[in-house]
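Collaborator request, handled under Task 6.
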Amino acid sequence: MNDVILSLEGIGLSTFLQELDNVMIALLDENSRILAANRSFLRLMPPSARGGQSWDARTLFISPHLEDVQALVPYQGRALLLYRGMLNIARADRKSHSLQGHIYRWPQGRLLVAAEYDVEGLEALGETVLRLNTELAKIQHQWSRANRESRRNGAKAGKPMYFDSPTEADQRRRLEEVLAVEVERSRRQRHPLCLLIADLDHFGQINERWGRATGAEVLRDFAALLREHSRQGDLVVRSGGKRFVVLLPETLLEPAVVGAERIRQQLEWRSILSLHGPVTASFGVAMRAEGEGAEDLLRRAGQALYRSKREGRNRVTQSIASGQIAAPNVSSC
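Structure tokens returned to the collaborator:
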């Protein structure tokens, strides 16, 4: 096997993908070494490694860990989506980037990684990948349905204390247990930890005007949207009523804020209520500060949420602790 990094044309993909500047595409072998990559992905690598011998991509990926992705479902005769969501990538100069991306299972145990800075560009990229394998959408739907069935069966088998049937999100007790563990891990390993609180706007009016069945549908759809934008190691919790908490381990403040803003926009744009009008939510985001415990982290995220409510709702506010740098273009408190 040739151990030199190939262009995408060398593995049979479209030539135009090779020259895209804002889309990163790479094919990795079963050991996560780069077999082929387009120009944008190669910029992540040290100049000395570009165009040379195949290179270990695990040094680039902060999260998700490629070892965890490789351990998922093996190749089953066609491309299979293994991961969709935020990719935190460190360049050779150690600057980190957060992108929306997909990771597919490819033949011979390989992985195809496709990532995009821009949401609209990512959708276009997704259409391109789907054209390469017309069966992918059908398999993805079947896999999601099997996962939902598995969760329902698991709840019936003896885990009701963590299961919230209106939204299928973990309950607050689960949050308290996991948050305590992640705060300690963040303290011990000095890794970032972010927490996001989201609260549906004017939810009481939805129940009053359209009925509780519609309100329950809104809760389910909002929980599903939060899960769609969550990684494998994140935790989505309905903490009570119309409020949700998302725990984001290994995540810096700016990627967490960008993710919250993306969720806010998609919630506003999609027609959850069909002809009834748009649904919006307010968000508060906080990153754990040095020496900060779980209660203080929750408190700061809650204060940021209340600032979003006071300033007109349907917005994201970040809580900035001493020594932290605020993400641009977002309100701070």
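The cover message to the collaborator said: "Residues 154-166 have pLDDT under 50 and may be disordered. The CA atoms of residues 288 and 296 lie 9 Å apart. Please let us know whether this matches your experimental observations."
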